Amino acid sequence: MTRRDVFVAFTAVLLTLATVSVMRAQPTVLPSTLFEWSALVPQPNSTGEVRRVVQKPTATLDELEIHITTLKAGEESHPPHKHANEEILIVKEGNVEALVNGELKRGAPGSLIFQASNQLHNIRNVGTTPATYHMINWKTPAK
Fold first, then answer.
1. What is the mean pLDDT of residues 71-96?
2. Edge to edge, what strands does the sheet with 123-125 contain?
């Protein structure tokens, strides 16, 4: 075995290890999926509960996050805040008030709320029963 043979073998091993390392570092993208409501375990918190659905990259997004929050009467999701990524909230049940474009807007079951990039937003349960909404948030390569 010559030095050249050892060098070629060593280089081949290094390239193989580098390729495997890069492949492991890339997160798996979310395939088409059906999320069963009964499989989404509610996690209690101080304002109600949350069901975490997914927080993962897709073929076109850096990250897709979906969760379902239930707020107790009078509770809010969080203080008004903003971020670069956009999100949609879909009211499943209850009555909510959302900060949208600097104004408080009321929504009932079936209402959709789009929160644009870098706009202050939050949501509050203004009813006397729990309010549940689906939150869909995405991060693109530009954000």
1. 96
2. 103-107, 96-100, 123-125
Report d(CA 38, CA 47) in Å as an integer.
Answer: 21
Domain ranges of the chain: 37-139
- DSSP designation for 121: B
The pLDDT of residue 7 is 64
Sheet of strand 131-139: strand arrangement: 43-45, 48-56, 63-71, 131-139, 86-93, 112-115
8 Å CB contact between 97 and 64 = no
CA-closest candidate to residue 96, choices 48, 56, 128: 128
Tell me the sheet residues that pair with 134. Answer: 68, 90
Domain boundaries 37-139, CATH class: mainly beta
Give 114's strand partners.
88
- What pTM does this model have? 0.79
Residue 22 has pLDDT above 90, yes or no: no
Q: Does the pLDDT value for residue 24 go beyond 60?
A: no
* CA pair distance 124, 76, nearest whole angstrom: 4
What are the CA-CA distances from residue 28 to residues 52, 54, 55, 139 (Å)? 18, 13, 11, 16
Backbone phi, psi, residue 94, to 5°: 95, 180
